[in-house]
Amino acid sequence: MVLEHVMRSVTAALDERFPDIPIYGDEIIQGLQEPAFHVKAIVAELVRQMDGHAYYITSDIRYFDRSARSRREMADQIGSAVERITLPWGSVWAERIRSEDVDQVLHVIVDYVVRVVAVRDDPYMMRLKEATSIGE
């Protein structure tokens, strides 16, 4: 569920910043018209912590454009668009953003850490009942 929220938020941030550029999800369609984005989660890890869980999610935002100049210019713009995403329970800042241009495709790799705190119904410590007796 957390992974899905993060990926939807990344896509929404890109769509808000670049409304004229199509965004593809799980599959890249044959005959893709450039420019275009393809958004994919490449790593998702759940780590248990004392107060809940941490989800380490790495997304790969691919930008397709034949122009090397356009890809260079878009690297910073994409990074700033997804630097902070809004989830249903609050905002998350990217822990790390990096980019690389491989085979005429710009890859913007973004790492997010989403911490989910466990809410417990039971108290951590039970109250002790005092038993007193008066000496004989």
What structural keywords apply?
6-stranded mixed β-sheet, alpha+beta
Report on this model:
By secondary structure, the protein is an alpha+beta fold. The chain has 2 helices and 6 strands, in the order H-E-E-E-H-E-E-E. The chain has a 6-stranded mixed beta sheet with strand order 1-2-3-6-5-4. The N and C termini lie far apart (64 Å). The model has no long low-confidence stretch (mean pLDDT 85).
Layout: helices, strands, pairs:
Layout: H1 2-17, E1 23-24, E2 36-49, E3 52-64, H2 68-82, E4 84-87, E5 90-102, E6 105-117
Secondary structure: number of strands = 6
User: What order do the strands of the largest sheet run in, or round the barrel if closed?
Assistant: 1-2-3-6-5-4
Q: Largest beta sheet, briefly? A: 6 strands, mixed
Shape: elongated
The number of helical segments is 2
* Arithmetic mean of pLDDT: 85
**End-to-end separation:** 64 Å
**C-alpha Rg, in Å?**
23 Å
Compact description:
The protein is of the alpha+beta class and 136 residues long. It has helices at 2-17, 68-82; strands at 23-24, 36-49, 52-64, 84-87, 90-102, 105-117.
